[in-house]
Amino acid sequence: MLLLRHASAGAPLPARMVDRERTLDERGRDDADRLRHTLEDYVLERVVTSPHVRCVETVRSLAVSRGLALELRDELAPDAARESTLVLLEELPVATLLCTHREVIERLFDGEVECEKGGAWLLDKVDGRWWPARYHPPRSSVGAGRAVTAVG
After folding, report:
1. Model pTM score
2. Separation of alpha carbons 146 and 45, rounded Å
């Protein structure tokens, strides 16, 4: 399973409902366009995303390139309860890409895992719990000399 943080969308907007409509900025659009190359080695059966526009825009071209429909789920929105997100993860096949927000990633891993905008974690399930196993930084960071890191 791949857990992706949406690509760069600039600064948050002041009103929560308006912020749901925030779109990707130039850097975010570039990272989203390159996502299909970054994750080309992974078999995907489903692409599931937060309904916020910046998440949908992040994974749209990847889903289209693979002939997959986008599935919008509130369990991946920034204010989603940790338990509802975990239930969703259990319902999905391991060949799924999930696109979400920093807040969700922090809740899932008790703030111990960082993820840049546009970065993705390959998750493994160990002893009934999801763990980050391998990190794929966004292409904009790789071009700046960042290497792919693994969690031991």
Report:
1. 0.89
2. 29
**pLDDT(145) > 60:** no
* List of residues 6+ apart from 151 with CB closer than 8 A: 113, 131, 132, 133, 134, 135
Of the candidates 26, 3, 4, 25, which has an alpha carbon nearest to the alpha carbon of residue 13? 25
- Torsion region of 78: left, alpha or beta (phi above 0 gives left; psi -120 to 50 gives alpha): alpha
> Is pLDDT of 150 > 70?
no
CA 97 to CA 65: how far, in whole Å? 14
Name the band, by pLDDT with cuts 50, 70 and 90, for residue 140: confident
Q: What is the DSSP letter of 51?
A: S
User: Can you tell me the distance from the alpha carbon of 46 to that of 83, in angstroms, rounded to the nearest whole number?
Assistant: 21
The domains located in the chain, with CATH, are: 2-142 (3.40.50.1240)
Which amino acid, one-letter code, is at 107? R
Give the torsion sign (CA, 130, 42, 61, 140): positive
